[in-house]
Specification:
Elements: H1 27-38, H2 41-44, H3 46-83, H4 89-97, H5 100-129, H6 138-155, H7 157-186, H8 210-225, H9 230-233, H10 241-270, H11 277-280, H12 290-297, H13 303-335, H14 353-369, H15 376-386, H16 388-409, H17 426-440, H18 454-461, H19 463-478
Helix pairs in contact: 1-7, 1-10, 1-13, 3-8, 3-10, 3-16, 3-17, 4-5, 4-16, 5-6, 5-13, 5-14, 5-15, 5-16, 5-19, 6-7, 6-13, 6-14, 7-10, 7-13, 12-13, 13-14, 14-15, 16-17
Length: about 500
């Protein structure tokens, strides 16, 4: 099998085509790539809806359950990525240890997901800018931000890493300030709140709606964690992947979980779960974001403008990461013969430029579909991308199970693993079950009631038949089979 690992530090001759990525990402870049890809509007805006639907206790429980799932997924990814550090890791690992057809479907699924989310972030940026300049057409802002994001990615991988580092710093600092201000208000040290924990037990709190409500918000919470896997895609461009990947993954998991749980706790204490503002928070109404409301109660008059700026950086950060990840996944698909060969081209800065152009172009086309008609095509595209993150996570847990089994079957020494994932096989099995629960429950309401909502089912799960189409198409054309454990490919450089 052709190895995707062409990430070397060798010198190229003057006339030689440069077709390898370069290891320029440091540990701080990797940590912030994962934080930047995860913490965003899901926390700053959607957290209010989560608390409203499940109560503060139910929201925290949902985040903790999702956190357990993500912990096992990330330790599984760390074991594979530290031992075989390659870009576009999901599709390559799955092709090597499960089935090339599944690797093909996973790779194209993840690329498509990032191209669509890039389009979503472009739409979001135009909505955010209306806060300051409502009379400027949104498409102008989207075009400006697309050029900015493309510029950050096309120069070098270090340019992307640095920009993502500073985008993420802004978010982290905002969350830390929010938590500190919130705790001071809860304990009566700052004005703006009576103090105490009364809202945690008010009415139906802390667990509004019981177990079913926790389940209902679990899918939303799971989506909020998506992006942590980006650090695995960046493994191939890490300076010292054997040390940096495990270190980054261990750091980011606990930081993200702490940020989410503490932020939800503070919001639950300071804002009642039945406050109607919690349901009104969106990109067009940032003034009632839970974060904005808490800062306003603390007497910070500029809270809305400040949070609007923070959320803008979150959107740009997400778009930046999606373009980076999408281009790397597409490049590795081309390296493995699963995408057109012209996508393998890499410029002198170590950037897969043709894959970058393609991802940018598709993201721009998807964005333009939101401007015509009633946006129906765009809505379908977004729904198709909705399950893509869970499908990627599912591939990580299933592939790690096969990775470890193949490692044992080939008589390899565990001492050679730079990072050893604990709780095997319980970890990947539990993560697989929770991923399946989240996927199947994406729109469980469509199955409940007097009449099954077939249209709702189709819209919610359209991503699944697209994924299966890719899988079976490759399997039929290439006649691929499941990889025997004894023949699994552990080659590295």
């Amino acid at each position: 099998m052709q190895t995707a690992q062409k990430i070397q530090t060798q010198q190229t001759n003057p006339g030689e085509q440069h077709e390898h990525l370069e290891r320029k990402l440091k540990t701080r870049h990797l940590s912030m790539i994962a934080i930047g890809g995860t913490i965003g509007t899901g926390l700053f805006l959607a957290s209010g809806t989560t608390i409203h639907d499940a109560g503060p206790g139910g929201a925290i429980a949902a985040y903790l359950i999702a956190g357990i799932m993500v912990y096992f997924l990330m330790t599984s990814l760390a074991e594979m990525a530290a031992f075989i550090p390659i870009s576009g890791s999901f599709s390559t690992y799955t092709a090597r240890f499960v089935d090339p057809a599944l690797g093909f479907a996973v790779g194209w699924n993840y690329w498509y997901n990032n191209a669509i989310i890039l389009a979503l972030e472009l739409s979001a940026s135009s909505l955010i800018m209306k806060y300051w300049l409502p009379n400027v057409p949104g498409i102008i802002w989207s075009a400006i931000f697309l050029v900015l994001i493309f510029g950050l990615n096309v120069l070098s991988v270090k340019g992307y890493g640095e920009s993502e580092f500073w985008f993420s710093i802004i978010k982290v600092v905002t969350i830390l300030i929010f938590i500190v201000v919130g705790l001071l208000m809860i304990f009566g040290i700052m004005n703006g709140h009576t103090g105490g924990f009364g809202n945690l037990t008010k009415g139906e709190a802390p667990f509004k709606g019981g177990l079913l409500s926790i389940f209902s918000v679990f899918m939303v919470v799971g989506f909020a964690f998506q992006g942590t896997e980006m650090v695995g895609v960046a493994a191939g461009e890490s300076e010292n992947p054997e040390k940096n990947i495990p270190k980054a993954i261990k750091q980011i998991f606990w930081r993200i979980l702490l940020f989410y749980v503490l932020a939800i706790f503070v919001i639950g204490c300071l804002i009642s779960y039945n406050d109607p503002n919690l349901l009104s928070s969106d990109l067009e109404n940032i003034g009632v974001s839970p974060f904005t409301l808490v800062f306003k109660h603390a007497g910070l008059a500029f809270a809305a403008a400040a949070m609007n700026a923070v959320i803008l950086t979150s959107v740009l950060s997400a778009g930046n990461s999606c373009l980076y990840v999408g281009s790397r996944v597409l490049w590795v698909l081309a390296e493995e013969g699963k995408a057109p060969a012209f996508l393998k081209k890499v410029n002198k800065g170590g950037v897969p430029v043709n894959a970058l152009y393609m991802t940018t172009f598709v993201g721009m086309l998807c964005f333009l579909t939101s401007l015509f008609g009633d946006g129906t095509v765009y809505s379908w595209l977004l729904n198709a991308a909705g399950l893509a993150g869970y499908l990627s996570w599912l591939s990580i847990s299933v592939t790690h199970y096969r990775f470890r089994k193949a490692y044992i079957a080939q008589g390899r020494d565990f001492k050679d693993l730079p990072y050893f994932a604990k709780w095997f096989p319980l970890g990947p099995i539990l993560a697989t079950i929770l991923c399946l629960v989240a996927m199947l429950g994406t729109n469980y309401g469509a199955f409940i009631g007097d009449k099954i909502d077939w249209y709702g089912i189709l819209v919610s799960y359209i991503g699944l038949p697209l994924f299966l189409l890719g899988y079976f198409s490759y399997k039929i054309v290439k006649k691929s089979k499941m990889v025997p454990l004894q023949e699994a490919d552990f080659s590295r450089e």
